[in-house]
Design brief:
The protein is 73% helix and 0% strand. The protein is mainly α. The radius of gyration is 23 Å and the shape is globular. Pathway: Glycan biosynthesis; alginate biosynthesis.
């Protein structure tokens, strides 16, 4: 089920909120939320909800088993078994075909046992489970012994499908004590509306030109058309994913939860290192805390640090998808992160701020080609087209620049780049302060009016639109 679907907005969410608000006591509220979360996942995945149940039960048990032992060896043994069990399920459903194809294996038996579907959210709730077990092993947290509360931590529907990846210590107290107030509900509704607008108005509007350009053979593209395609995709993936995250965090606020922030204006980053502090923050935090630092981080010299960075981002790329495109994308980012730890990084600091932003954005945009292209051959050919290498001298009218770009496209590109900066937020704060000096109710009325107007506009798009899933659902 999509957060941006009419069924979710006008049926599932209102009914869940009404039942939740009318339910007394935190235990019953948690039970209601768990039932709603299970129904939410079942409506989209049907039989594959069994994978989620297995993940919940096995990690609940592993967590308690780890905590029962004082000695390091049995604690480590159970942790390793738990991690291997989680990764085995993930590897089977997500990487079976990739590994067997890469290894050149092919047989009737392999075809029969190969998975036919990738369960939604499996990469996210697997990483969440591994973090939970590692934190218990490190004694950072104590295991949750209430199965309903643990299941809610794992299956809470706002963050189940595409994050943010929530660590247990972030919500452990909230599972036992939280309040659903008008203020938190209003803040959540506002953030949900902003996320919905990002997805429905911006991401979906630039998705069309991006899809049309990437559907063309790269050797038929001129450089301007190739750049148009990647500019649109750069905006699409940001507003699609950050829109989902805003909606997820907003939904959490409506129910009294505070989920972690996942984006912080990544397209104004001044380096690739800065980009990863701003993009998919909970994932980069996970890799840093559970892989990069245990590997030694930057504590064992320059060479070891570079190796650690490359390895972590190779795995980060593989986490995103079972194809060589994502592996190369991860290696690409790892290379620039390593490069920025050399003299090149010191050189960057002497450049003007705008030059550093342009550098980081260009690197990120070229990287997105690997993310969007069908395969590596397509990706490299597309990059050559962007560089005006081997582009056609004669262009058919139906493949010219303005065949893909309309005035509406330019409008949403402009809106996208403006909204990808702090400009709208700054003006909103200034406007709110100005209204607040006059009358706080007036400021609240204006915000409510804007939110309602945005919801109405998005709803009109939804009712007249087509199915358009979030990009990160496939990861």
């Amino acid at each position: 089920m999509l957060f941006s679907s009419s069924f979710f907005i006008f049926f599932f969410l209102p009914i869940t909120l009404l039942i939740y608000a009318a339910t007394p006591g935190i235990r019953l509220k948690n039970t209601i939320l768990l039932v709603a979360s299970v129904l939410f996942y079942w409506l989209g995945e049907k039989i594959y909800i069994a994978i989620l149940f297995i993940s919940i039960l096995q990690n609940y048990a592993f967590g308690i088993l780890i905590s029962r032992h004082v000695n390091a060896r049995p604690r480590l043994t159970i942790l390793v078994v738990g991690i291997v069990s989680n990764l085995t399920i993930l590897a089977y459903y997500k990487y079976f075909e990739f590994f067997t194809t890469t290894a050149g294996l092919s047989s009737e038996l392999l075809t029969k046992i190969a998975p036919h579907h990738l369960p939604l959210g499996i990469s996210f709730f697997t990483f969440q489970a591994i973090a939970y077990l590692v934190d218990i092993h490190r004694r950072d947290v104590v295991p949750q012994r209430n199965l309903i509360d643990y299941a809610l931590f794992k299956a809470f529907f706002p963050q189940l499908i595409a994050g943010p990846i929530v660590r247990y210590q972030t919500v452990s107290r909230q599972l036992k004590r939280r309040r659903m107030t008008f203020v938190s509900f209003a803040a959540g509704a506002e953030l949900f509306s902003i996320g919905l607008a990002k997805k429905v108005l911006v991401a979906n509007s630039v998705a069309g030109p991006a899809d049309q350009v990437f559907a063309q053979p790269p050797h038929d593209l001129t450089a301007p058309v190739a750049w148009l395609g990647i500019i649109c995709y750069t905006l699409q993936i940001y507003f699609d994913f950050s829109g989902y995250t805003d909606m997820a965090i907003g939904l959490g606020r409506m129910f009294g939860f505070r989920l972690p922030k996942n984006f912080n204006y990544p397209y104004v980053a001044q380096s690739i290192q800065d980009f990863w502090r701003r993009w998919h923050i909970t994932l980069s935090t996970w890799f840093r805390y559970y892989l990069y630092i245990p590997l030694g981080g930057n504590r064992n010299g320059v060479v070891r640090t570079q190796i650690n960075l490359i390895l972590v981002f190779l795995l980060c790329g593989l986490w995103h998808g079972a194809s060589w495109n994502f592996v190369v994308w991860g290696a690409y980012h790892g290379f620039f992160l390593s490069l920025e730890r050399t003299r090149f990084g010191r050189f960057l600091k002497f450049l003007p701020t705008n030059a550093r932003i342009v550098y980081a954005l260009l690197v990120v945009m070229i990287g997105w080609v690997f993310f969007r292209a069908a395969d590596l051959e397509h990706a490299f050919a597309y990059i050559r087209a962007m560089m005006d290498i081997g582009t056609p001298t004669f262009v058919e009218p139906n493949k010219s620049f303005f065949a893909f770009a309309s005035s509406e496209t330019f409008f949403w590109i402009f809106v996208g780049f403006v909204c990808a900066t702090r400009v709208p937020a700054t003006f909103a704060r200034i406007g709110h302060r100005g209204l607040a000096r006059w009358a706080t109710p007036a400021a609240d009325f204006v915000r409510a009016f804007l939110v309602l107007g945005g919801l109405t506009l998005c709803s009109s798009y939804l009712l007249s639109g087509t199915y358009n899933p979030f990009i990160y659902f496939r990861f």
